[in-house]
Amino acid sequence: MTIDAQVADNLAAVTARIERAAREAGRDPAAIGLVAVSKVQPAERVAAALRAGHRLFGENRVQEAQSRWPPFLEQDPDIRLHLIGPLQTNKVKDALALFDVIETLDRPRLATALAREMDRTGRRPDCLIEVNTGEEPQKAGVLPADLDGLYKLAVEECGLPVRGLMAIPPFDDQPAPHFALLAKLAGRYGLPVLSMGMSADFETAIHQGATLVRVGTAIFGERRT
Ligand SMILES: *Cc1c(COP(=O)(O)O)cnc(C)c1O
Question: Does residue 140 belong to any structural domain of this protein?
């Protein structure tokens, strides 16, 4: 099978699974966005997804996204990019210039840096706060206990367009309780966007209310790093 056919098939299969999970959960499939995670993938697979009509992508590194996406964006202004990896404050300017959604706001210093750059440029992509639901020391994301403080700083003091929450559950845990916690936390603030679920667990996430699923390997195949 050609790469184009393979990626198109995978996209169709993932989309069908999203629709089935949504219907099982009594939800509208159109309310769930598929972020195709293209990090580290060869350009030909990304081009195949574009040719298959897909327009929503996730990258976890600013620099990699900068080297990949500008030519595609010039050809197709409908492409939307989400930053799903950690953001350093010295990359905020570049990130805001390129991404349509920043999914990984996770600390006060980043909130103030984002606000300063948004005020300077007028470019204000939506932001999601990343929550470390598993409270893993090595992992990015604000601890659940610190979410309230970060939310208030980001929204009330910085005026950031915070639209929702994002989480990556611990690798070894059952994901469902983490998704349920994230949904509960979002509900507390009336936040409509829930980014949760990857190749291995996006159906579970949809049952728990995900509005964005971030799927890499199930679309593009294994990452060769
Ligand atoms: C890599 C990555 C994904 C996609 O993971 P797959 O298991 O390949 O679907 C989703 N979210 C984040 C934050 C990632 O870094």
Answer: yes
Residue 39 lies in a domain: yes
Report the number of distinct structural domains present in the chain.
Answer: 1
- Give, for ligand 1, the residue of 198, 212, 223 to mutate: max count of ligand atoms closer than 8 Å to Cβ: 198
Sign of CA dihedral 40, 44, 50, 54: negative
CATH number of the domain bearing residue 145? 3.20.20.10
**Does the pTM of the predicted model rise above 0.85?**
yes
Which residue has the CA at smallest separation from atom 10 of ligand 1? 214
* Total length of the chain: 225
Residue ranges making up the domain that contains 45: 3-220
Q: What is the pLDDT of residues 15-40, one digit of tens each?
A: 999 999 999 999 999 999 999 999 99
Report if residue 72 sits inside a domain.
Answer: yes
Report whether 61 contacts 38 (CB < 8 A).
Answer: no
Q: Which atom of ligand 1 is nearest to the CA of 39?
A: 1
Helices (H) and strands (E) in the chain, counts: 9, 8
Name the one residue in this structure whose structure tokens are 């992992």.
Answer: 139
- Residue ID of nearest Cα to ligand 1 atom 11: 214
Kindly give the distance from the C-alpha atom of residue 198 to the centroid of ligand 1, in angstroms, as a whole number. 6
Measured in Å, residue 120 CA sits from the centre of ligand 1 at 32
* 199 within ligand 1 shell (Cβ under 6 A): yes
Give the pLDDT confidence of 94-148 residue by residue, as tens digits: 999 999 999 999 999 999 999 999 999 999 999 999 999 999 999 999 999 999 9
Dump pLDDT digits (tens) for 50-72: 999 999 999 999 999 999 999 99
